[in-house]
Design goal:
367 residues; Growth Hormone, Chain: A; six-stranded mixed sheet; four-stranded antiparallel sheet; globular
Length: 367
């Protein structure tokens, strides 16, 4: 209640001071020993612009109209907000059932900018994490100048920051001590998880080794991929080179398409390690984009990046250790050529679908 009162007081004071409504939403995070309570507050004007609350167009928003759109708003928040606890991505938690205040009245259009609507989530935690990172990607949906005020309350401590399209994320240190070794271990686990759930990276590796791979070729391919994505991961993490996310993700899809297509006509694969190096540079930017969402630490940054990269390699080697014996067995079978073509065609189709989805902003792939 204190946190909510603080948020509302800030909003009302700012509106009164400027004599016009702010283009600002509010996010409150209350840190308790066993849970996080996260409150998102939007005014009706903001919600009307995105969700068309006024369904009948009478310029009056009723209780029923807000309630009807509440599930869509809640889904929108969940899809556009990333919460990271100790460098581990986490969901927002359980959504508190939506309910408007009992004295809430139907509001005409002139009052929409001044009426706040709250959406609350509760996430159970075993202990307070050393760091909490938050990223909100919904600001552009409300307009180029929209900002999001974040207030974090931990006991008597208060932390405030303003997020926007240009600065979508923040990182808060709760004061719980954590060693560098523990931090590095978290990044190793994060790297393993990223590669094991990075289906595009795994398909790229599968397309590389499915045709004519032997141990020496495989060793060169894996080493080349490691060196290449390590270079661009570090360059991108330190903002030496930055590229648009859509360009990178589309480029990763094209590397899959090319390698899978080449499998259909290539008779020799000795050059694959060279090809892998250049394509690995592209994949490294993809790893960097995933890390950027975590609001990287300033303490032990290089060690954390190398740990993440080590985790990626551990996960990658585990996958290769499983796939390589299967590829060797497959290549000895009478139907080996047909199987290679079938696998390559499947990978090509998936890569092409990813490219279309990522390049043109569609959303039809299940993973």
């Amino acid at each position: 209640m204190k946190l909510l009162a603080l948020l509302l007081a800030f909003a009302l004071a700012s509106i009164a001071a400027q004599a016009h409504p702010l283009d600002t939403s509010l996010t409150g995070i209350r840190i308790d020993p066993d849970q996080l309570v996260i409150t998102f507050s939007f005014n009706l004007r903001e919600l009307q612009d995105v969700f068309q609350l006024d369904a009948n167009g009478d310029r009056v928003i009723t209780r029923d109209e807000v309630t009807q759109k509440a599930p869509a708003v809640r889904k929108f928040i969940e899809e556009n907000v990333a919460l990271v606890l100790s460098y581990t991505p986490a969901g927002l938690g359980q959504a508190v059932p939506f309910a408007l205040p009992k004295d809430w009245d139907d509001l005409p259009e002139r009052m929409w900018p001044y009426q706040q609507v709250q959406f609350v989530f509760e996430r159970t935690i075993k202990e307070v994490p050393p760091t909490i990172s938050l990223r909100v990607d919904f600001c552009p949906r409300f307009g180029s100048k929209h900002t999001n005020l974040v207030v974090i309350a931990q006991g008597k401590a208060r932390f405030e920051d303003v997020l926007s399209a240009r600065k979508p994320g923040l990182r808060y240190e709760t004061g719980r001590a954590v060693s560098l070794a523990a931090q590095m271990f978290e990044f190793v686990k994060l790297g393993i998880d990223h590669i094991l759930t990075g289906y595009d990276h795994l398909l790229f590796l599968l397309a590389l080794i499915v045709v004519g791979a032997n141990f020496w070729q495989l060793l060169k391919i894996v080493t080349s991929f490691t060196v290449a994505h390590s270079i661009t991961l570090l360059l991108a993490a330190f903002n030496v080179v930055t590229l648009p996310s859509r360009l990178i993700e589309s480029g990763i899809a094209l590397t899959i398409v090319y390698v899978a297509a080449e499998n259909l006509w290539a008779k020799k694969t000795a050059h694959r390690w060279v090809l892998t190096f250049f394509f690995g540079l592209v994949h490294g930017f993809g790893f960097a984009n995933a890390l950027r969402k975590l609001e990287l630490p300033t303490r032990g940054l290089v060690a954390s990046l190398l740990s993440f990269n080590g985790g990626v390699e551990i996960g990658q080697l585990c996958v290769v250790a499983i796939l390589f014996p299967l590829v060797l067995w497959l290549n000895k079978q009478p139907f080996a050529k047909k199987a290679d073509v079938a696998v390559s065609l499947l990978v090509l189709i998936l890569g092409a679908a990813w490219f279309v989805e990522r390049a043109f902003g569609f959303s039809f792939m299940p993973f």
